[in-house]
Request: fold
Amino acid sequence: MTSTSVIFAFFIVIVCIHAKQRPFYNIGHMVNSIKQVNEFLDSGCNALETDITFSSEGIALKTYHGKPCDCLRWCGYSEKIEVYLEYTRNLTTPANKMYRSQYAILLLDLKTNLISKQNLNKAGKLFVDLLYKHLFTFGKSESKLKVVIGVQRIIHNDFVVGFYEEMKKRGIEDISNQIGWQVAENVHIQKIAEMWRRIDVVKNIWLSDGITNCLSSLRSWSRTITMIKMRDECNVQSNSFCARKVYAWTFDAKRYLRNSLRLNVDGIITNLPKNLQEVLREDEFKLKYRLANSDDNPWTIFA
Reply:
């Protein structure tokens, strides 16, 4: 066999291994300041979760979690939301000198419970304006980032409706290809599915299950297992509302990170991404998972 043949055969083996590895998201938890963004990316994250607070009138105020929050974490970091989004855009734009190639997903945990019910629709419209200006640069952005927007409860569906009404009004529905959605509330999964069917226009759906790291060791895995079964058995051709990805939160100890990975989750929210990186390199997982990148499609079900 010639050296060229050996190289080609080796390349084919690598491609086959890569195709069988689940694209995985190491999601940094509660990343609410510019300083934290770089710290978590440097620790191995390819996705970040950020909290956004609102006024009762529906205006996005800042990135901020506040008390209570996870054990052994400082709850008070914050940033102007416009500054945070613009910094994120720079980090995810290949032509920018700040480009971080591994940064693929931003999860926005919207504190929609702070918005009065009558202002949820308006809040969704205003949020389109915020993202369009500061993340998508009026459609001119070359950022490779995908965004997963999370509302807190299924009764906050008017926020999502307002968001899509505003995109349609502006003629910018194409940015929906960069946006996915989830509901943070730990309600029955069928109720979440019914919400998306009622709204009708949302297809890039993620599911998540979990609890604060202070209590995660006590939580049953049953809901996560049900979500994964639904994901794997769903046929996108006949049901466009299939959940594309399922992630677990919030786990820091390696024991529980391993347990999550054994369930075939697509991602884990963690306060200690270095722990997760080390677990992913273990023999049990290193051929099963690979870190997703910005070229992976987060709106597809891995098969």
